Amino acid sequence: MERASALILALEKFGQGDYIGESISQLEHSLQAASQARDSGADDELILAALLHDIGQIIPLEQSKEVKMKLDNSTQNVGRVGHETIGAEYLRTLGFSDKVCRLVGSHVAAKRYLTAVDRSYHDSLSSASQKSLQFQGGPFRGAELQAFMEDPLQDQMVALRLWDDRAKVEGIEDTTPRAMAYLDMMANHLSSEQ
């Protein structure tokens, strides 16, 4: 319970900053994604991955390790380079399952996949998400695309990405469960991984 409580508190404390290029906080974005996952009937691991998918943007890092994606000739920040990998590795050190870590680590890959197979998906992305895609390698091609399509978690990775994309709604804090609503789920998950 201690690790779960500490992570929930960190999410609440450090997630208050703006969600890059969007009109809600990083915390609200994470809570909306988790709520969508829960409402869809997803399993606990996928719900936790939705809640924590951007933890690599939220957790404080030593300045020397942090590299931000900045637009040319601009000070606009569109996120941490490799935040999905940072987040997945951070969660792995806390004892989260391989599935949760792979899902957290895949939400950028899922965006690259969806932009490769569906032009309308690219057009539906927010401006900030379209800009960050440039730094993230653009749409998948060739072997990367094939590997993603063959991944056994592909459907869950895509579902997480779509919740991520839709988790940008202003003014629904009163109807979105707060982070503490996931405490028992997280604690049970971490204790089962021991």
UniProtKB/TrEMBL annotation:
Transmembrane segments: none annotated. Residues 27-111 form the HD domain. InterPro entries: HD/PDEase_dom (IPR003607), HD_domain (IPR006674), HDIG_dom (IPR006675), OP_Dioxygenase (IPR052567). SUPFAM superfamilies: HD-domain/PDEase-like. Pfam families: HD. NCBIfam families: HDIG. This is HD domain-containing protein. It comes from Paecilomyces lecythidis.
